Amino acid sequence: MEWLANIVSGIYYLLSPTYRQKKHHQWKNEGTMVKIFDIGMWLTTLLIIVFVIIALAVL
Fold first, then answer.
1. What's the pLDDT band for 55 if we cut at 50, 70, 90?
2. What are the angstrom distances between the C-alpha of 8 and each of 14, 16, 18?
3. CA distance 3 to 24
4. How far apart are CA 20 and CA 18, in angstroms?
5. Can you give the residue ranges of every domain in the chain?
6. pLDDT in tens, 4-46
7. What is the DSSP track for 5-56?
8. Three-class DSSP category at 59
9. Phi, psi (deg, nearest 5) at residue 30
10. Who is most buried in 2, 4, 17, 49, counting CB within 10 A?
11. Mean pLDDT (whole number) for 54-58
12. DSSP state of 1
């Protein structure tokens, strides 16, 4: 169920400039692995959205 929370967080990251700014400030205080994880979640969410759009277009 954690993956769903990560996807929702990624979508929110894409849609909310305030949240993105908050994450960038948070990243300054955290390690590189956390940054890589957050960017990976963002990219995963973006890919899922693209696949859903393609699937809906095919139907």
1. very high
2. 10, 12, 16
3. 22
4. 5
5. 2-58
6. 777 777 778 777 888 878 877 777 777 776 777 778 878 888 8
7. HHHHHHHHHHH-HHHHHHHHHHHTTS-HHHHHHHHHHHHHHHHHHHHHHHHH
8. coil
9. -120, 170
10. 49
11. 93
12. -
Lookup: tokens for 44: 């995963």
Task: Locate 11 and state its tokens.
Answer: 């979508």
Residue 3 structure tokens: 């993956």
User: So what's the pLDDT on residue 57?
Assistant: 93
Which pTM value belongs to this model?
Answer: 0.52
At 58, list the tokens: 């095919």
Helix (H, G, I), strand (E, B) or coil at 2: helix
Within 10 angstroms of residue 51's Cβ, the number of other Cβ atoms is 10
